[in-house]
Amino acid sequence: MIAESLSLAEAGDLAGAIALAEALCAEDDAPDVAFGLLGSLHVEAANFERAMEILRPLAERDDADPGVLYNAGRAAEGLALLQDAATWYGRSLEGQPLSPALRALGMMLGRNGRPEDAYVFLQPWTAANPDDHEARRAAAAGAIALERAPEAEALLEGLPADEPGVKVLRAQIHMQRADPWGAINELRLLAAEPPPAFRGAIRRTLAKAYLVVGEAEGALEQMELLEDTGPEDAVVLASAYFQAGRLEEALDTLAPFAEPLPGSPRPDNPPPVARDIVLEYGRYLHSAGEAARAVPFLRLATELDADSPDAFQALGQALAASGDREEAREALERFQDLSRKAEDDVASVNEKRRDIADPTGRELRAALDLAADGELDRALENLARESQLSPDDPRPAYAASSLLLDAGRGEEALVAAERALAIAPERADGLYQRGAVLMSLGRLAEAEQMFRQALEIQATHPAVLSDFAVLLMSEGRDDEATGLLERLLEVRPDDPMARNHLSRLRGDRAPADGEHVNWAENGRQALRSQDFQAAEESLRRAVRADPENANLRLDLASALWENNKPAEAEQHAREAVTLEPSASAAHRLLGGLLLWRGEYLRAAESLERAANLTEPGPALLLDLGRAWEGAATEGQGTPDVQTFLGRAEDAYRRARDLAPEHSEVAYGLAQVLRRLGRDEEARAQMERYRELYGEEQRAAREDGTALPGEPPNGN
Question: Cβ neighbours of residue 678 under 8 Å, at least 6 residues apart?
Answer without folding.
Answer: none
